[in-house]
């Protein structure tokens, strides 16, 4: 069950770097799209922390790639900002152009997130795949 912030055990496992526990919870039927009070879903936690294998498992189970948190950040935005190139590649491969065009409420894009944090390899990939800069 969720804590006072709406965070489920799966999100705790992911936010604390326990990918194997997260996989176990997923395979045992843990809720996959349950957002916490910030709108962060298990996929967002996996992408923020660089858990590529768990992100792939969640995607295989059908979670929404384009979901947003309360400020409009997507899993791709978080992975781009955190510098997780392998997760960014996974999201682009599985989500296509639609997730590249996602923008934050104030117009902040995954490309801007990568550039803002100095993740040039991710920025290059996003540009090559057609990510928006404005």
TrEMBL record:
The lineage of its organism: Eukaryota, Fungi, Dikarya, Basidiomycota, Agaricomycotina. This is Ankyrin repeat-containing domain protein. Signal peptide: none annotated. The keyword Repeat applies. Keywords: ANK repeat, Repeat. It comes from Pterulicium gracile. GO terms for cellular component: nucleus. Coiled coil: none annotated. It comes from the Eukaryota. InterPro entries: Ank_Repeat/CDKN_Inhibitor, Ankyrin_rpt, Ankyrin_rpt-contain_sf. ANK repeats lie at residues 5-37, 38-70, 71-103, 106-134.
């Amino acid at each position: 069950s969720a804590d006072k912030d709406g965070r489920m055990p799966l999100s705790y496992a992911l936010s604390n770097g326990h990918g194997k526990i997260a996989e176990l919870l997923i395979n045992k039927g843990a809720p996959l799209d349950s957002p916490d009070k910030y709108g962060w879903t298990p996929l967002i936690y996996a992408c923020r922390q660089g858990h590529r294998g768990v992100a792939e498992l969640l995607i295989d189970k059908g979670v929404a790639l384009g979901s947003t948190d309360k400020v409009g950040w997507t899993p791709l935005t978080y992975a781009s900002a955190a510098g997780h190139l392998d997760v960014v590649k996974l999201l682009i491969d599985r989500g296509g152009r639609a997730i590249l065009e996602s923008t934050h409420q104030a117009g902040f894009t995954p490309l801007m997130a990568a550039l803002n944090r100095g993740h040039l390899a991710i920025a290059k990939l996003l540009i090559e795949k057609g990510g928006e800069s404005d």
